[in-house]
Design brief:
Layout lengths: L9 E9 L5 E11 L3 E7 L10 E9 L2 E15 L2 E7 L5 E4 L6 E2 L3 E8 L2 E12 L3 E6 L8 E7 L4 E7 L2 E5 L2 E9 L3 H23 L1
Antiparallel strand pairs: 1-2, 1-4, 2-3, 3-6, 4-5, 5-6, 5-7, 8-10, 9-10, 9-12, 10-11, 11-15, 12-13, 13-15, 14-15
């Protein structure tokens, strides 16, 4: 598909690139300027990051009507305090991937589910089976009643996310219950964090499959 996105169409971009030690990174950035030949983007990043330029990178455009991906050249970077500015070559074409940026990855993180069961508050401790920016599937051994709406806490290593979630189904495989929940009333910041976790895990899985 020929590149025909306008600045007003794009919510943000994601860059997958390597540092000077060839370690892969993924950063979310906002576009400051979009021209026929170059894209100028910016992101906030507190830690030191030594980026090799120029280099070929994977670039994603996240818009209201879907996700578009392509490869392009990261031409130049510069840092100003806690911000990194990227100069990219405007791609000639993009590929439409999906209506939403929701892909699942296998991941085990601690989860606590709270819900009202009669007059008492039930606390169910479990683990994620897989997760995306759309919802999570948790696994547990107990045969317990779970209502339609619950309060959920997901305990990532670097962040604790609290959200409401809606039970859509419970599947039983041997002795393990797997319950699927889409998020309810979750913040955009928490969705961005989960999306970054999923992208990082996907990249790790791809690297491991090549070894």
């Amino acid at each position: 598909m020929k590149f025909n996105l306008n600045l007003s169409d794009i919510n943000y971009i994601k860059l997958v690139f390597q540092d000077r030690q060839e370690k892969e990174h993924c950063l979310k950035a906002s576009i400051k300027w979009l021209g026929e030949r170059e894209i100028y983007a910016c992101t906030k990043y507190e830690d030191e990051l030594f980026i090799r330029t120029p280099q070929e990178i994977k670039l994603s455009f996240v818009s209201n009507n879907g996700l578009y991906t392509t490869n392009t050249t990261l031409k130049h970077t510069e840092r100003n305090d806690s911000h990194i500015f990227f100069t990219l070559k405007t791609p000639e074409e993009t590929e439409y991937r999906q209506s939403r940026e929701y892909f699942r990855v296998k991941l085990e993180e601690a989860v606590i589910i709270y819900y009202q069961n009669g007059d008492s508050l039930t606390r169910l401790t479990c683990k994620t089976h897989d997760i995306s920016a759309n919802g999570v599937q948790v696994q547990f051994y107990e045969d317990v009643y779970i209502p339609g709406i619950v309060d959920m806490t997901i305990l990532f290593e670097k962040r604790t996310i609290k959200t409401q979630a809606k039970l859509v189904r419970i599947d039983k495989e041997e002795k393990i219950n797997k319950a699927a929940f889409p998020y309810l009333n979750i913040s955009e910041s928490d969705l961005d964090f989960i999306s970054q976790v999923c992208i990082k895990k996907q990249l790790e899985d791809k690297r491991n499959s090549l070894n």
